[in-house]
Specification:
Elements (H helix, E strand, L loop, with lengths): L20 H21 L2 H7 L4 H7 L3 H19 L7 H14 L1 H13 L5 H23 L9 H12 L1 H4 L1 H10 L5 H15 L5
Length: 208
C-alpha cells in the first residue's frame, strides 16, 4: 500500500487498513498515551501493550512516533470541527459548543496542547489541517460582517482568537477550576459555561 501523507503509514500496512482492528486499537491507545504523556514522554512499547500488539506492528502502520501523533491529532481536529460548527450569527452559542467539547473531552485539549508545545509547526499535516479550519471560520465571519450580522470593525482573526481563548479558559486552567469547585458562589459546570457564554455575548451579541 502506498505511503499516506496524512497518516504516516508505510507500504507494509495491510490492505483494507481503514477497517483493521489492530490499527484502530493502536490509534485509540496512542490517543490516550499522547494526551497523558505528551509526544516526548509517550512510549511506543507502552501503547503497543495497551493496544494488545507489538512495537514492531505499530511501526508497520506508522513510520515514527511523530507520524502516529500527527494521525491522531488530525482525527481529533476533525472531530472538533464536526462537533463545534460555527453559526456566525450566534457566537455565544459557538463558545458554548467549544466549552462543551473541551469539558467532555479534556484529553483532546491536552493532546493538541502537547503538539503545540513540542512540535510547533514541524508537523505539517496537523498545522495544515488546523490552519484550514481557521481560514474557513474566518471566511464565515467575514460573510457575517458583509450580511450585517457582525460588527465590521472587528478583524475576523481577532474574533476567532478571542472566542477560542474564552471558551478554553477552564480547560487551560484546571487549577482555577479546582478553586471554583470549592469557593465559587455556584460551583457547577453549568455556571462556568454560563459565565463564558455571557462574556462572549457582551463582545459579540447574538443577532436578534
Amino acid at each position: 500500500m502506498p505511503r499516506s501523507a496524512s497518516s504516516g503509514q508505510t507500504s507494509g500496512a495491510a490492505a483494507g487498513d481503514s477497517v483493521d482492528s489492530t490499527r484502530e486499537r493502536i490509534v485509540a491507545a496512542a490517543q490516550e498515551e499522547f494526551a497523558r504523556y505528551g509526544i516526548a514522554g509517550a512510549r511506543v512499547d507502552r501503547l503497543a501493550k495497551q493496544a494488545r500488539t507489538s512495537k514492531e506492528r505499530v511501526y508497520a502502520y506508522f513510520r515514527s512516533k511523530e507520524a502516529l501523533y500527527a494521525h491522531v491529532a488530525e482525527r481529533e481536529l476533525a472531530a472538533l470541527a464536526e462537533a463545534t460548527q460555527m453559526d456566525a450569527a450566534d457566537l455565544p452559542g459557538y463558545a458554548g459548543l467549544l466549552f462543551d467539547h473541551f469539558t467532555a473531552r479534556p484529553d483532546h485539549y491536552r493532546l493538541i496542547t502537547w503538539g503545540r508545545l513540542e512540535l510547533g509547526d514541524s508537523t505539517a499535516d496537523v498545522a495544515g489541517s488546523l490552519q484550514a479550519i481557521i481560514v474557513r471560520k474566518c471566511e464565515q465571519l467575514r460573510d457575517a460582517q458583509r450580511a450585517g450580522l457582525l460588527d465590521p470593525a472587528w478583524d475576523p482573526v481577532d474574533v476567532l482568537a478571542l472566542i477560542n481563548q474564552i471558551a478554553s479558559t477552564w480547560a487551560g486552567q484546571p487549577e482555577i477550576g479546582a478553586v471554583a469547585e470549592e469557593r465559587a458562589a455556584d460551583p457547577s459546570t453549568a455556571a462556568r459555561r454560563a459565565a463564558l457564554v455571557a462574556a462572549v455575548e457582551r463582545l459579540f451579541p447574538r443577532v436578534k
